[in-house]
Amino acid sequence: MKDVLVVYKSRYGAVERYAKWIAKALECEALPMDQVKTATLLEYRMLIFGGGLYMGRINGIAALTRRFQELKDKTLLVFTAGLTEPTDDGYYTFLYTRNFTEKMRKQIHFFAFPGAVDGQKLGRFHRWVMGMAMKERAQKDPANAQAYLEMKMDFVDPKYIEPLVEKARGILQEWDEKKRRQEEIRQQAAEQPEEEK
Ligand SMILES: Cc1cc2nc3c(=O)[nH]c(=O)nc-3n(C[C@H](O)[C@H](O)[C@H](O)COP(=O)(O)O)c2cc1C
């Protein structure tokens, strides 16, 4: 069985940037969710899913939740990119509860990263939704009103992947250590004189 795969769904590229940085740090592949079959997911021990936040939902997360039974023995990490600040615990608790059942929450390690938006790249409906949200923010935070109203923000930065990469590396190291210990025990047993066995 292979160790780790990054799978992502990205509408305008923020999640894709994070997915590729994570894959590079962990020396594994990053594949768009739409190209991945269940059989491929089952080949890995650890799966890292990424999706953008859209109206309180994690884009593409159904690809994970509808296969949850099949993935019950996997180590699962989920990351999001969104414009709500990752320090907003109230929002992310709501989001986490809304997108995952209690059973799923016990199995998932969750990470929230800052996202990006470029009004000029948005489709019509998305521009309308974002327009309303940004108007509200501009009123609450007049000093940055211009950036909100232009809908041009990019908070994506590789530094944010660190906690996730650290978590994944820790788990991978534990697995390596366990494998090494099992190998040692096997070798000791093989080296024992026949009469002591
Ligand atoms: C229509 C629309 C709805 C959004 N809804 C949310 C939201 O509910 N919460 C949030 O934090 N960010 C929200 N965002 C911001 C996106 O999550 C952000 O742009 C993210 O970087 C998108 O990642 P992607 O381009 O990889 O899909 C929304 C953006 C758009 C365009």
Oligomer: single chain
What's the number of extended β-strand segments? Answer: 8
The CATH architecture category equals 3-Layer(aba) Sandwich
What's the average pLDDT?
95
Distance between the first and last residues' Cα:
31 Å
Shape: elongated
Indicate the CATH class: Alpha Beta
Rg calculated over all Cα atoms = 21 Å
Let me know the largest β-sheet. Answer: 6 strands, mixed
The CATH topology turns out to be: Rossmann fold
Unreliable segments (pLDDT under 50, ≥5 consecutive)?
Answer: none
- Category by helix and strand content: alpha/beta
Key terms:
197 residues; alpha/beta; Rossmann fold; 6-stranded mixed beta sheet; two-stranded antiparallel sheet; 8 helices; binds flavin mononucleotide
Write up this protein.
With 197 residues, this protein is of the alpha/beta class. The protein is built from eight helices and eight strands; from the N terminus they run E-H-E-H-E-E-H-E-H-H-E-E-H-H-E-H. The strands form two sheets. Strands 1, 2, 3, 4, 5 and 6 form a six-stranded mixed sheet that branches. The protein has a two-stranded antiparallel sheet with strand order 7-8. A hairpin with a 2-residue loop joins strand 3 and strand 4. The radius of gyration is 21 Å and the shape is elongated. The structure holds flavin mononucleotide (FMN).
